[in-house]
Amino acid sequence: MPKPADTSTKKLISLAPDNWVRWVTGISNLQAREILSGEFQWISRESDVLIRTFSPEWGEFLLLNELQLRYNNKMPRRMRSYAALAEEKFELPTYPVLINILPTMDGEIPTTFTSNLGGLRAIQDYRVINLWEVDVNIPFQQSLPSLLPFVPILQGGNNESIIREALQILRQDENLNQLETVLAFFATFVLESAVVQEIMRWDMGVLRESPWYLEILREGEARGEAQGTRVSIQTSLEAKFGREGLELMPQISQIYDLQRLQEILRCVVLADSIEDVRQLFSGCES
Prior knowledge:
Layout: H1 9-14, H2 17-25, E1 31-36, E2 48-55, E3 59-70, H3 75-90, E4 94-102, E5 112-117, E6 120-125, E7 127-130, H4 138-141, H5 160-172, H6 180-187, H7 193-200, H8 204-207, H9 211-221, H10 226-246, H11 249-252, H12 258-270, H13 274-285
Parallel strand pairs: 3-4, 4-7
Antiparallel strand pairs: 1-2, 2-3, 5-6
Helix pairs in contact: 9-10, 9-12, 10-12, 12-13
């Protein structure tokens, strides 16, 4: 039996950790010394990665990486909690970074958590990187293979030639070729499925193995209720098709069967266009 492809966040970052820590912090003289376990008693997620990092100016500290498929309003509190747990466990100061993969229409994303109870304040700053605002040339110019699977959704990455260039680099390195599934999945956000199949030489069933496709499904299914899945449908429609996609939500909000909603979510994730969504939506309802 073939070994499952490792496309985890930890795997992505471990491809070039020194370049990664310099990019996410914007500090050029850092060294990544060790990727640590991000498992705590109450928190364990594949998208959280801790790196023991060294700076000539500040010495050793923890770089906390949180890759989030889409921002939600619980993230500021999570960044505060996770940073505190990391500092307690490893007894090192922490530099938290939140990396959002797909855009939402929630407005400006905060870079600070604050609370004030009876005059006692809690404050946690963190850096925010939105991948849709990152220039597509950066992974090529700064030797950042960790970003290559995300090329289709980077700024300026929504064209076939650039995606083919990223794919060629992945295929030339045995340490990178497992990441094709991630690249293929995000390519479906900007190219027609037929083009993605031709480029990747795969059928769409393979794309369903992408961890980010599964993450979208889990967003709703983990809640175990229809409303949670509706939220995932809404955010997927918004990320892929903008306001035009959101026009379908009044119809979807009238559906209460969880299984039907999960099928609609799968349809939305793999659709090429808003016209396809309307057709697939009808098919899912029948």
